[in-house]
Amino acid sequence: MANGAILTAEQERKLRQPIDEYVGKIQKEIDELREHGTAEVIEYQNLIANVKRDKTLSKGEKESEIKEFEAKLSQAKAVEAQNKDKVAKLISDAESYLKENFEKLYYNAVKESCEAEKAKALEDHKQRLAQLEKEHKEALAGMSDQVEIKEENYVHKNRISNEKLELEKEKQRIKDRKHDAFTYKYHLIDLLRLSEFTFAEEVAQKWENYKYTFNRRSFLLQNGLYIAIILIFVALCVITPIKKGTPLLTYNNVLNILQQASPRMFLALGVAGLMGACANGVLENGGEVTGVVPTFMNKFEPIKSECTEIVRTETMSLRKEVMEENADAFVIAPGGIGTFDEFFQILTLTELGRSAKPIIVYNVSGFYDDTIAIIDKLIGMGFIRESVKSLFSVCKTPEEVLNAVEWLTSQ
């Protein structure tokens, strides 16, 4: 090895050579057994499929060619069946060898080499940064003109950026080397089994591919807002009971509203979380629950099967339209992005005169204090009419919500 644990390309090739020779010899035997069996089965199956799709052939020509290929296909299948046990034994032998020796003889050494390369790359990077900083300070020491100093700072900044890019390129090269070493085992298995992997092997490859393609910066840019919202929400749920002695979210709080306010409720999504709990409470108390769910949500969360009625829509927008048309009132309980979307949509429709149904904000433990403060700020800045605040009621307890729903819906 060179540089301690770091492997050269030639050293890596020599480590892999015994594996290539052993598995390669078995693969050659398998290929010979498959030549007039499995290989021809695949060939004639493809030829038959091509003939069936060929629109230039008459019905008689198609039948003639298909009959000929099917006869040859039958012969190939017989050869395949004859050699099946021999091929299976050879594959088992090769897989046993890989299981016993791939990591031990090859992959572990490559992993160790990649870790050593990464450490060396970081150390070299630090040394080059230190050298650039030293040269930059020496250059500045001999300058007095502000224009020259500004230009030197600009050049130094670019050199630092270039050095960081070089480090990222080197880290990617090391990452590629490790990934290629890992996937080589599955490349051999792919040839042995003709792309048939076990469930565990598929999971292992997917996990490796996820780690290989994962980029922390991109992940945070795409999901950072959602992570922040979840963390804030969790923090509120933890802090509120400590500060105010009142749980922010309890099933009873929400159930008390919906069990009493209406014998019939509309269920926005599915069986989990607050909506599931609300639906259970309504059903247990003899009420009716209408589930309104976009068809694409089935793969994320199943709709509650016990619903009195299930309405399926093509889009989220149509789902909201169904709920807006059928609901008698809207209670805005603590929730996430979807809740805020629905709140401001129905608020906008009410302001525009497209809806006249009551809107009640359930501000348990001050959950919506900041939201109301933002609305007040926007009113003060002239972006929102002051009359908007009269379009919704704010309640702090289930009893207040119940009374508001009963009073407003009776008007």
Write up what this structure looks like.
By secondary structure, the chain is mostly helical. It is built from 12 helices and 6 strands. It has helices at 9-35, 38-53, 59-141, 146-193, 199-213, 216-244, 251-261, 273-284, 316-326, 337-351, 369-380, 398-410; strands at 264-267, 288-294, 309-313, 330-332, 359-362, 393-395. A 3-stranded parallel beta sheet has the order 1-2-3, with helices on both faces. It has a 3-stranded parallel beta sheet with strand order 4-5-6, with helices on both faces. Strand 1, helix 8 and strand 2 form a beta-alpha-beta unit. It is flat.
Brief overview:
Helices cover 71% and strands 6% of the residues. With 411 residues, the chain is mainly alpha-helical.
Offer a few descriptive terms.
411 residues; 3-stranded parallel β-sheet; flat; 12 helices
Shape: flat
Helix content: over 70%
Mean pLDDT: 83
Order of helices and strands: HHHHHHHEHEEHEHEHEH
Number of strands: 6
Report the biggest beta sheet as strand number plus sense, adding barrel if it closes: 3 strands, parallel
Strand coverage percent: 5-15%
Q: Could you tell me the radius of gyration in angstroms?
A: 34 Å
Strand pairing plus helix content: what structural class? mainly alpha
By DSSP (H or I, 4+ residues per run), the number of helices equals 12
Order of strands, main sheet, comes to 1-2-3
> Which residues form runs of ≥5 with pLDDT under 50?
259-272
